[in-house]
Design brief:
This protein is an alpha/beta fold and 99 residues long. It is 46% helix and 12% strand. The chain is built from five helices and three strands; from the N terminus they run ααβαβαβα. The protein has helices at residues 2-9, 21-34, 51-56, 70-73, 85-98; strands at residues 42-45, 59-63, 77-79. A three-stranded parallel β-sheet has the order 1-2-3.
C-alpha cells in the first residue's frame, strides 16, 4: 500500500475502474489517511457500486443515470450528466470557498 500511496501522491487525480466497490473505498481511505498534506477527496459515481467510495470521500458527487439513483441518494451533490461536473466544481465550488 505504501508503493501505491507514493504513486498516487504524484497525481492530480486518480481514476479507478474495473475494481470492486470495497477497493474503491479503500483507495479513497488510503489517500485521506496517508497523504501529506491532507487532501480533500472527491468521489464521482453513477451507480450502486460507487456508493462506498462516495461515502468514504469528503465530497461525494452522484450522477443520475441508467444505473439507478443509489449514488445520487448517497452523495453530497447530484448532477444529471457528467458534463455538468465542470460547472459544479469551478462555479459552485468557488462560491462555497468564498463563503
Amino acid at each position: 500500500s505504501s508503493t501505491l500511496l507514493n504513486l498516487v501522491q504524484g497525481c492530480g487525480a486518480v481514476i479507478a475502474c474495473r475494481v470492486s466497490p470495497l477497493q474503491k473505498a479503500q483507495l479513497v481511505r488510503l489517500v485521506r489517511e496517508g497523504a501529506s498534506p491532507a487532501p480533500v477527496t472527491l468521489s464521482v459515481g453513477d451507480g450502486a457500486n460507487d456508493v462506498p467510495m462516495i461515502q468514504e470521500a469528503q465530497v461525494g458527487v452522484g450522477i443520475a443515470g441508467r444505473e439507478g439513483r443509489q449514488a445520487v441518494n448517497n452523495s453530497d451533490f447530484a448532477i444529471g450528466q457528467f458534463s455538468h461536473i465542470q460547472r459544479l466544481l469551478l462555479v459552485h465550488g468557488r462560491w462555497n470557498y468564498r463563503r
